[in-house]
Specification:
six-stranded antiparallel sheet; 220 residues; single chain; 47% helix; elongated; 17% strand; alpha+beta; 2 domains; Arc Repressor Mutant
């Protein structure tokens, strides 16, 4: 959304109150004034739509997830414990864009572990190698530019795109992201629960993912 610089005259006391509120909300003076004015004229800003998406996600994510506040209004961090020998935590970070990209991407989902364990990193890499291959095989055609990933040790970034089955409104988008994270999280935990049997764990995770695809759970 295009922005321009405007000169307006405000009371010093009003500016102080705005600055105090902006500080508590973790945003800037300009952004807060923009939001307040948009609300008064019933205009939906990208920032307010992002907030609505995150509010929807917070209402859907169950007790298995811990939602953490972020310094940026465009980010939401979610943690989920993994029952594995090193007791790692899976970290999901959702970052939403204010404008849709050229291939329809409206944000990014980053999945990571914080660990120094080579064994855990290798297992994480093996899980996502299969997950990415299955997604690309069955879902590439549903998204402009296909399903797009950036993978590195201990971190995977997936571009979030609408595939046409999900309405472009905050509730639908929030539910689609939540459904995807729920499926990914439950599948990863099932995989690691029997990781000592690599063949069985891989077969199980493939089945859970394919069931999710068949049930149209993956819409982003």
């Amino acid at each position: 959304m295009k922005k321009s610089v405007y000169s307006i005259v405000l009371s010093d006391n009003v500016v102080k109150a705005i600055d105090d509120m902006a500080y508590r909300m973790g945003t800037s003076r300009s952004n807060l004034i923009n939001q307040i004015l948009a609300q008064q004229v019933s205009y939906k800003t990208p920032e307010s739509e992002i907030k609505d998406i995150f509010d929807c996600m917070k209402s859907i994510m169950d007790a298995n997830f811990q939602i953490q506040s972020q310094s940026s209004d465009a980010m939401l961090s979610i943690r989920s414990p993994l029952r594995y020998k090193y007791r790692p935590t899976i970290r999901y970070r959702v970052e939403l864009l204010k404008e849709v990209g050229e291939n329809g991407e409206f944000g990014f989902l980053t999945v990571s572990f914080r660990t120094q364990s080579k064994e855990l990193i290798d297992a994480f890499r093996g899980f996502f190698f299969v997950w990415c291959q299955v997604e690309k095989q069955y879902l590439d055609k549903d998204f402009k530019g296909g399903v797009e990933y950036i993978c590195s040790d201990g971190k995977v970034i997936r571009k979030l795109k609408l595939n046409g089955r999900t309405a472009n409104n905050p509730d639908s988008v929030g539910k689609a992201i939540s459904d995807y994270i729920n499926l990914l999280d439950s599948t990863m935990k099932a995989y690691f629960a029997i990781i000592d049997d690599p063949f069985t764990s891989t077969v199980k995770m493939e089945k859970m993912l394919l069931d999710g695809i068949d049930e149209n759970i993956i819409n982003i």
